[in-house]
Design a protein that fits this description.
It is built from 13 helices and 12 strands. The protein has a 7-stranded mixed β-sheet with strand order 2-8-7-6-5-3-4, sandwiched between helices. It is globular and about 60 Å long. The protein starts with 6 loop residues before the first helix and ends with a helix. The relative contact order is 0.17. The protein is α/β, with parallel strands linked by helices. About 40% of the residues lie in helices and about 15% in strands. It has helices at about 5-10, 15-30, 50-60, 70-85, 100-110, 130-135, 155-160, 185-195, 255-265, 270-275, 280-305, 335-345, 370-385; strands at about 35, 95-100, 120-125, 140-145, 165-170, 200-205, 225-230, 245, 320-325, 345, 350, 360-365. The protein has 2 domains: about 5-45 and about 280-385, Aspartate Aminotransferase, domain 1 (Alpha-Beta Complex); about 50-280, Type I PLP-dependent aspartate aminotransferase-like (Major domain) (Aspartate Aminotransferase, domain 2, 3-Layer(aba) Sandwich). The structure holds pyridoxal-5'-phosphate (PLP). Pyridoxal-5'-phosphate (PLP) binds near residues 231 and 233.
Length: about 375
Amino acid sequence: MNTAWTQRVADIQSFKVMDLLKRAKELDAQGFDVVHMEAGEPDFATAAPVAEAAKRAIDEGMTQYTAAAGIMPLRETIARWYQQRYGLEISPQRIIVTSGASGALLMVFSLLAEQGRSFMMTDPGYPCNRQFLRLIEARGQLVPVGPEQNYQLTPELINQHWNEATAGVLLASPSNPTGAVVKRDELAAIAQTVREKQGHLVVDELYHGLTYGFDAPSILELDDNAFVLNSFSKYFGMTGWRLGWMVVPEVAVPEVEKLAQNLFISPCTVSQYAALAAFEPETLTILEQRRLAFEQRRDLLVSGLRELGFGIPVTPEGAFYVYADASHLTDNTFDYCWSLLEDDHVACTPGLDFGNNHAEKFIRFSYTTGVERIELALERLGKRING
Ligand SMILES: Cc1ncc(COP(=O)(O)O)c(C=O)c1O
């Protein structure tokens, strides 16, 4: 068989944590009590009203393709959400329903970057971004960030790193893996800087709704020309339904629709009808309870990890991750995570999956498991560290 795969696929890296995940599942199957803190998805099942809406859609035969940009009732519902949540008037025409934020990332980068161009983004950051860029022969321009910058890009960093190849900037707020949120003033200053550079600004608002103590501002409150990515995966607890959306400037709509038609034909039909129920008050009440549960878990995990000596100089304000500096324990968190799994049955993700910036010192803990399980993980870590 001819195995001359393309260079672009050869260059794409797999998640390093995959083997670790496989092993964690094996240990589960062998009857070991593994505490799972590696997952990037809520442990809660999709809210009942959403599941019911999906069942109704199937019963009513809603199983054929839809328009490439999604069904209009969902685009209108999302537009109302922007009104309700952010006080913004967004035309439903500007909202494109996508196959998860992953589908949106592929389209947005295809539209805004190409061979020889790059997109600036944080290191650490969500690893798939740079793989998408590689796929379209462009490049992720990784900018190291730390607690001094609240793990986010700043206008200064953007100015400092901007070069002729830079097509734009990708922000993720709240961020994966750090949970860091860009505040309104800083967001406005970043938007201004990118405008001055005549670049594109893409903001991944996937973890909006999952902030603790305040609501994250949308870039659309400050810059109507930005491209926004969002998803039903995280706040709405619908990872497996593979549904997201993007908000794009009016002039970009026909181009994105063209891409959507060719790449995906349409987003999943049943998921779209299900998602209509995601914004119902009944569902939002459930999601709010879950948000409060996440907050409680975060507080427990952050204080527990700090007591054990992990470095968490900035309290994560959103998402469901704690990116902890474990350099008091190891200079190789990849191996450390493996032995934590094998010996203590605690599964978490080594920093190497999120970039190169001191990654070997960091571990990402997801609080996508209940309080008792987090307590158990802390107890096991405590025994390991303090004997
Ligand atoms: C920052 C970020 N962006 C995008 C995605 C992709 O999400 P989905 O395709 O499930 O909407 C993820 C998933 O973990 C993420 O963490």
